Automatic annotation (TrEMBL):
A UniProt-annotated Pfam family: WD40
Keyword Repeat attributed: yes
Gene3D superfamilies named in the record: YVTN repeat-like/Quinoprotein amine dehydrogenase
Keywords, in A-Z order: Repeat, WD repeat
Keyword Repeat set for record: yes
Annotated ranges, domain CTLH: 34-92
Polar residues bias (residue ranges): 1053-1069
Name of the protein in its database record: CTLH domain-containing protein
Region: Disordered, residue numbers: 1036-1069
GO biological process, one term: regulation of DNA-templated transcription
Domain of life: Eukaryota
WD repeats: 345-387, 452-488, 528-559, 851-892
Taxonomic classification: Eukaryota, Viridiplantae, Streptophyta, Embryophyta, Tracheophyta
Amino acid sequence: MSSLSRELVFLILQFLDEEKFKESVHKLEQESGFFFNMKYFEEKAQAGEWDEVEKYLSGFTKVDDNRYSMKIFFEIRKQKYLEALDRHDRATAVEILIKDLKVFSTFNEELYKEITQLLTLENFRENEQLSKYGDTKSARSIMLIELKKLIEANPLFREKLVFPTLKASRLRTLINQSLNWQHQLCKNPRPNPDIKTLFTDHTCAPPNGARASPVPVPLAAAPKAAGTYTPLGAHGPFPPQAASNASALAGWMANAAASSSVQSAVVTASSIPVPLNQAYVDGDIDLALRGHNDFDENYDLTLMVPSWIFIFSMSSIWDSEVTYPAALPQVTWSLDDLPRVVACSLTQGSNVTSMDFHPSHHTLLLVGSANGEITLWEIGLREKLVSKQFRVWEMAACSPQFQSAIVKDSSISITRVIWSPDGNLIGIAFTKHLIHLHGYQAPNDLRQVIEIDAHVGGVNDIAFSHPSKQLCVVTCGDDKLIKVWDLNGQRLFVFEGHEAPIYSICPHHKENIQRQYTGFRKKSTVVVQFDTAQNHFLAAGEDNLIKFWDVDNINMLTSTEADGGLPSRPRLRFNKEGNLLAVTTVDNGFKILANADGLRILRSFGSRSLEPFRAQHEASPIKVSCSPVVANISPNISTVDRLDRNSPAKPSIILSGGDPTPRIVDNKPKISEELQDKMKSWELAEILNAKQCRVASMPDTDSASKVARLLYTNSGVGLLALGSNAIQRLWKWSRNEQNPSGKATASVVPQHWQPNSGLLMTNDASDTNSEEAVPCIALSKNDSYVMSACGGKISLFNMMTFKVMTTFMSPPPASTFLAFHPQDNNIIAIGMEDSTIHIYNVRVDEVKTKLKGHQKRISGLAFSNNLGILVSSGADAQLCIWNTETWEKKKSLAIQLPAGKTPVSDTRVQFNSDQSRLLVVHETQLAIYDASNTERIHQWVPQDALSAPISYASYSCNSQLVYASFCDGNIGVFDADNLRLRCRIAPSTYMTPAAASSNPPVYPLVIAVHPQEPNQFAVGLTDGAVKVFEPLESEGKWGAPVPVDNGVHGSRAQASSTTSNSAVDQHQR
């Protein structure tokens, strides 16, 4: 059923309720399945009308739909059974047992037997579990509390528990509006028409008094003057352009005023969503809160496109598991959360027309300019990573219209730049015909993918979308068309129907997410630019200001002029985290505004230079003005085209614009005076005591158990540890004066959190030697449940109640590693002790397939959604790459071990944030591989001060650092780009002298990294302790990177054990 048909049902439900057709209301609720009336359900359950309760429920779910539904029906039938027993009605109880409860015996035979045994008791309260059963009324109330939780958690009831907010008599209002409209179409409209029927269209009688037969008037037959009244579309009834018959429209609006919600000649949010990221300003402003767009003209802004192109259903997540989602915490926000501090001002060199932050690398900014140039900026370094001037890639493939237009006027500007959702593609729309797609590989590699002659005239917007899991490109333009393309440049769909150029498109998941905001100039005809941050804050550019709103409040929060220099309507863009805001300036540049979190991220970059990659043809240094709040970041900016990641001694010969002509480049190593100064001043940061960094010790740890696995919650407010004793502990930070962000921090000690019941999350560990068991753990994306095992069955725990929701996969073999599929949380890859990998479907409780390729237990699993692969690692020092569509093995390779070393210890794998690199960790080495071809790029082996075996290692959340722990208690912080050591944290920093010299030794067994703070990590120790580390606030980062110039390192760098094993690297390449 279409969305509008569904809404019509709600209108009918409202009408029936207002007319007091109560039975019809609930019958329609049940038959349509659109709205579950919890109040009616509770009334029937409290009255004990069990047949009506189940009948009503059957309109929304069946017993065997999922485990939520099964438990709902079980609780109802159990209550009915217990009430029969309480009345001593044995015959009815037996009937309920056989007809209603028997179905559950196939799922839990022991429970069914126990229920059956209640028949033998004179009073079922003699059963210990039912000893607190009160009277019937209180028992029903308790049952309803449980049922309400189950219904709210059941995915089949999503979006069915809240009736939409409608004005009174909405259906009557719409009919009245329709009649008013029909009256305006009459050839001879009478002042006070007498409406006698709704079965046919209204027409006024001819003026001579003759009665005409009522004939339905098709919309297509309407006169041209009323051409703006189009048929009901996907998003609303009318486009917002003025009718040609202005007086008729005015009359219609006047007649409708008494009962209509329409308030102006422009149809508002009640009838059609305003295109995203733009709005006509008329005192107040209607905005749809999704997506980004850049455009600059006043045209027809209607989105009358079939809804399928914009609405894609979200796959169900864990709809087969009974968990109770916690009530959302009441998060408090303050103005300090707004990025309002000017961190830096950067000069682009041409008017900036569009910007977009990378979806996962939150300081990587893509900028499009009026001269057709695209530039990638690393905001943390204030550096241009790559710039490309516009050029036509293949003129012969372009249309004659474009060739003629470019000959007449060679100037071309960018209208829109955008990242694909995975950050692997860049889309660029131009003011003449074309779009370009570039492939991106970190840190600065742009490659041409395809050029499409997409529209006649300008291409005004471009977006990426995923219909049927196929990445597509959607464009719109001056030719009044919307087109959908695949990545090979094939046109899939064309949508027509607009009467003016289209300036905005946005694939989205929900319709009509709208709100009206105040704070704009009155009666302005301009189009303003806006963006949202994490669906909480909205920013818009107007009057040389940036104006901010809370999206849940129509009144403006505040505004800032960002130290001046903004155009009248600045373009702006938040990064995904909402802690950085880019805004254009009048001097052909842009500013970066930040909040406290954003400033910390910028400081964490240090002063890494791109000097070695500057070619002889570089332009003049770019002017940068810097705010003192991020003074630790180097202000050196240069124009750089393409940086060769693997061979820094060979600068690219491709100039901006892609000129392939070879040029003579001096490749002799040169060390600039600036670099020499840096090398003289550079020192390996060595932290030897607790005063040199921030360390927090978690309370209530278990000294008798090793910390085997450690995870931050995805929200960044909690830390979860799994001990070798199979018990999990959770620590949570709370929002208070000491910790206003509420996020995990080493400055504040958190609380050891437990539910009121006092339950512990304890894994099944029967018949298992705790020393031999290999603990494994995985956390759901929304932090509502955790899956773990410790030698026994895998258990699914509710994170709010600590209850075991289900167990599965009984050993042998025991599970040794768990990983969720990135696209479907119902699919789990389970590494096993017997070296196999089980692809397990939780929803149907079955193993989909078994992967065989290792010789020893599985110790690591990592999915790459971008590459469509699963990488597995084992205690056999082998890596296997599996295709996630077919689950066939694509490749296997052995990591290089030192001579004489046998593969007995665990090997772990982890993709970086953009999935272009793979970190491989073994006790003998750290190694980084190219994810696309599994060739090793860098390797580091324990040496000098860090000579002990490696116990664990992990990328930081932004993949710019690698944290590694060692079996002697040392911790190393490495640059992820080259595996060069930048900081060593000695055991004396966080251990007592007794612990540091104990036998057996105490050392970190596992590392966890904070999901948002790249300089925060935690370690779990062999003595059960858990520590959280952060650099001092005055430092902001862990040491500094080793200076590099054309591949030549200073002598101090070479002597400090910071170099990766270059000989091995060269051999591997």
